[in-house]
Amino acid sequence: MKKTFFVSSILLVVLFFSCKKDSVISSPEARLNVSIDTVKFDTVFTTTGSVTKSFKIFNDNGQRLRMDIKLMGGAASPFRLNINGTAASEVNQLEVAAEDSIYVFVSVNVNPTSANLPFVLSDSISIAYNGNKRWVQLQAYGQNAVFLDNNIISANTTWNTNLPYVILGSLQVAPNATLIIPAGTKIYAHADAPVIVDGTLLVNGTKTNNVVFSGDRLDDPYDKFPASWPGIYFRAGSKNNIISFATIKNAYQAIAVFEPSVNANPKLILHQSVVDNAYDAGLLLSNTSVQADNCLISNCGTNIAIESGGNYNFTNCTVVTISNNYILHKTAVVKASNFLESNGSTTTKDLSILFKNCIFWGDNNTLESELDIKKQGSNNFSVTLDHCLYKANSSPANTTLLSSLNNMDPQFDSVDVRTNYYDFRFTKFASPAIDAGSATTFTKDLDNNNRSVGVTDIGCYEKQ
Question: In degrees, to the nearest 5, what angle opens at C-alpha 38 toward C-alphas 109 and 191?
């Protein structure tokens, strides 16, 4: 009898709490929590939409809770909601189970306006329950742009700087056409949108007004991802290309140059520019000719990848990779060869590379050398390091060394992987790179500061 009474009591308790959980709480003292009070979107280009963000609403009560969720701007709002799986700007009497939660997803679409500068969009979400109200604020920065969708530049063209350019599909500079990009222009490319140059590209940035190439996702954390867009590709017939004071970042292959120059000029001159955070290669160079001076090529899968020979001249460049959340430093910062293997056969070409006053550095001590130089066949082959600072366990193979420094820490100013901050200037006058270079015809460094006359520093920055 006692056992039967005990079991019955347990069943009653279970039934009581089960019924309580199934009941709806109506008290104004009901507890509701929201995971965030403001949903913020970084710059969103007009007409292209944005990433979707989300937050959670928690019912912290032992009973079900009914609530009304409303986007205050309604159908006219630039923001869009998906509430617990339902796309709507308003959902009423939504029940959330006891001690459970729901997701609210938010996206934004920006309509064009006449504003050239970024503009602020705002709205709010009301969460009403049992006579109470909670609010979640919505904020986005919109930006007008010139949208180029599978665009071909077929005649000589000069862009303006009134608005940024957003490339969708691709942008092609046709043979015999020249695209001039003036100082201060911002170019943002979609994930599938390469810049293809069959004619001529002239990028005329300045120190105070760099030209920027990047992906079109400017919201955190996507604005830091490598491989956000394909990169800039100079194909066979392209000629007389010059890039000055540009920042080219977050690409798959930032700059790729193919085939020899069609005239006596280098196919590409890269001057006082930054190539950063490319997933595969910062510079991919195949049987071509490139001249680069006072450039920073940093944190790429392979910073400089040269294949199938060619003619190259790098002066006062800093080539460095530090492993971080986006790039793992596992290959040499320079990989160069005079051959190409394809379909089971190998072709070899002449190769000439002069590295003068350059730094080659990386943080992974498991690498034998930051210079991986390979040779096949009997073609002309010359790779020279003249007054360079490099990291290697021994002298790089197939390389001529002239007054170069091995395994001497350049003492960069600041490297903070946690915040993704890198300053590859020199913090101390004790850096072995200071006054260790030789004279060149280039009188300015990457910061456009004067170089010391006669004896210069190694790398893209001159200690001031």
Answer: 40
- Is 97:39 a contact under the CB 8 Å cutoff? no
Task: Name the residue among 406, 404, 402 with its Cα closest to residue 368.
Answer: 406
Phi, psi of 234 (to 5 degrees): -100, 115
**381, 375 contact by CB (below 8 A):** yes
Q: Cis ω on the peptide bond leading into residue 221 (within 30° of 0)?
A: yes
Query: What integer is the mean pLDDT of 212-227?
Result: 90
Q: 145-426 has which fold?
A: Pectate Lyase C-like (2.160.20)
Domain with CATH 2.60.40.10 in the chain: 32-142
pLDDT digits (tens, 9 = 90+) for 110-132: 877 767 777 788 999 999 999 99
**Delimiting residues of CATH 2.160.20 domain(s) in the chain:** 145-426
Q: What is the pLDDT of residues 296-324, one digit of tens each?
A: 999 999 999 999 999 999 999 999 999 99
Neighbouring CB atoms inside 10 A of 192's CB total 11
* Strand 165-173 to 412-416 pairing: unpaired
Nearest to 151 by CA among 185, 193, 186, 204: 193
DSSP code, position 420? T
Q: What is the dihedral of CA 285, 287, 289, 294, to 10 degrees?
A: 30
Candidates 2.40.50.180, 2.60.40.10, 2.130.10.10, 3.40.50.2020; correct CATH number of 32-142? 2.60.40.10
| β-strand partners of 281 | 253, 302
For residue 198, the one-letter residue type is: D
Task: Kindly state the tokens that stand for 432.
Answer: 């072995």
- DSSP strand pairing (132-143 vs 157-158): unpaired
Cβ atoms of 323 and 308 closer than 8 Å: no
Amino acid, single-letter form, for residue 374: K
Question: CA-CA distance, 141 to 119, in Å (whole number)?
Answer: 6
**CA–CA dist 172, 180 (Å, integer):** 13
| Angle at alpha carbon of residue 95, lines to 91 and 98, rounded to 5° | 150
